[in-house]
Amino acid sequence: MAAKYILGSVVGTFGLAYVFDTMISDKKIFGGSTPSTVSNKKWGEETDKKFQAWPRTAGPPVVMNPISRQNFIVKSGLE
Fold first, then answer.
1. Rounded to whole angstroms, how far apart are CA atoms 46 and 37?
2. Count of Cβ atoms closer than 10 Å to residue 28 Cβ
3. Beta strands of 1-79 (E only): which ranges?
């Protein structure tokens, strides 16, 4: 019997959080606008080039953000 109240509360909480997030972030009820650094693809590409051009003294070149590039290696076993 308590499970239905718990489940209902969790679903209601997620629903309320979604509505508030949409109103605040997407509808911008408090004003403001999306920064050009977020919406401008060219700016993101130039920033990525800058990150990749940083000099490294500790080792070979690495990708600064491997998650966004999806080129990381997952090892199958412990080595």
1. 11
2. 11
3. none
Structure tokens at 65: 């953000």
Residue 68 is which amino acid? S
CA–CA dist 18, 12 (Å, integer): 10
Residue 17: pLDDT band (50, 70, 90) is: very high
* Calpha distance 1→66 (Å, rounded): 47
CA distances for 79 relative to 36, 44, 60, 61, angstroms: 44, 36, 21, 22
Q: Is the pLDDT of residue 74 over 80?
A: no
Overall pTM surpassing 0.85 (yes/no): no
